[in-house]
Amino acid sequence: MTLLQSLPVACILLCATVVAEDQPAAGIFSDDNLVAWCIVPFDAKARGPAERAGMLVRLGLKHVAYDWRAEHVPSFEEEILQYKKHNLDFFAFWSWHDSMEPLIRQHGIRPQIWLMMANSKADTQEARVQEAVNGLLPMVQKTRELGLKLGIYNHGGWAGQPQNMVEVAENLRTQHDADHVGIVYNFHHGHEHIADFRKHLTLMKPLLLCVNINGMADADVVAAGRNKILPVGSGQHERQMLALLRDSGYSGPVGILDHRSELDAEESLRANLNGLRALRGNLMPAP
User: Fold this and answer.
1) Residue 285: its pLDDT value, please?
2) pTM for this model (two decimals)
3) Is residue 175 within a helix (H) or strand (E), and if so which, with residue range?
């Protein structure tokens, strides 16, 4: 008789429970830490606030970063009310619209504001940084007054390079008392950063407010106009990038995308959820 066979059933069950509890947690990639992003103007079903909230509840997502177009402005307050009704976190708001200020004050929400900085063409790096800083200062002041965080959002060009984003954010923090300013980094706007992602991540990490993930194909394929937006788990590089993100000690929120106007947003979010769930239990330490 083996030792296991000689143990009481209750002891075996207790041992199994302890082993299960010792398994690595999903950590930053847990469903509770995920933010739904690019789900409003890109949704093929063109859902309204109530339908969108219901979709997020079905998917088990709790945080929403709200992107919008002009036609969505009249429904801003209804969006807020539906999120409150369904216990969803209005986590972030894209760019800015003046009609949001009274709603933020009235409803007591504290979304991060995600904003691109200027793609400066000034002659020197110092001048480019200063131009970007000057362009952000009005929103730095606005978010300070409202008690919100301001995230510099990468979207290509000079303004999308991690080094430049860091320089601008640090200038705002040190020269303009703006500790509420940080960086929102997007995998889908960072294909050119894949090879040096460890270096870029190390540089950005103290400033990161959110990281939005994506399936990552080779940069030359994306440059040719294909595979910019892929479900997590279907690319060639995101497994290592996710491992690097986890191993960096980053502990903030992680966004998953729709961003595919030909698809039902629920379909694309679910594909990302399934892909991430398949990966997160098998992320080896990054080499």
Assistant:
1) 78
2) 0.89
3) helix 162-175
